[in-house]
Structure to design on (171 residues):
């Protein structure tokens, strides 16, 4: 098989073809310049503005995020300080309550001990009084028995009365 070589007439266009191609190209350029380029350029400009707006919004959002992070860190630090202050106040309050309870308990214990001492003294005085009464009763009973024995006879009774009268000194 033999492939014929392309002739030069196919490669080199004729003058009429070049003129019509140039006219067609010029018409195409004019149509594109009149109707296509403004639309394309406007859409490119709109896209450029949209991209710039998006970049500005992203920068703004980034700055706002940094600001919010800083604000959040400040809030977190402030919350920690408030928590520490609340814990310190709670600790002081609990210590104060414990100290007040301890003081009240000590005062109550002192009052109970004092009441017990007074009760003991009262009971002691009561016991001493009862003991004196019992001793007096026993003394009287013993004196009665002794007197009965001494006074069994009239002669002994008269001697006892005379002796006692002699012992009594009148002022």
């Amino acid at each position: 098989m033999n492939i014929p070589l392309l002739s030069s007439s196919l490669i080199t266009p004729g003058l009429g073809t070049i003129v019509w191609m140039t006219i067609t190209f010029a018409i195409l350029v004019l149509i594109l310049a009149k109707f296509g380029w403004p639309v394309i350029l406007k859409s490119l400009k709109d896209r450029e503005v949209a991209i710039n707006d998006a970049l500005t919004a992203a920068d703004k959002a980034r700055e706002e995020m940094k600001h919010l992070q800083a604000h959040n860190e400040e809030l977190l630090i402030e919350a920690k300080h408030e928590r520490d202050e609340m814990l310190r106040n709670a600790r002081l309050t609990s210590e104060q309550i414990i100290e007040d309870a301890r003081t009240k308990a000590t005062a109550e214990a002192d009052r109970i001990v004092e009441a017990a001492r007074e009760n003991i003294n009262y009971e002691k005085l009561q016991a001493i009084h009862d003991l004196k009464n019992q001793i007096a009763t026993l003394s009287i009973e013993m004196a009665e028995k002794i007197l009965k024995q001494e006074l069994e006879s009239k002669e002994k009774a008269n001697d006892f009365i005379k002796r006692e009268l002699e012992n009594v000194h009148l002022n």
Observations:
- The chain is about 90% helix and 0% strand.
- Residues 128 and 134 are 10 Å apart (CA to CA).
- Residues 19-164 form one domain.
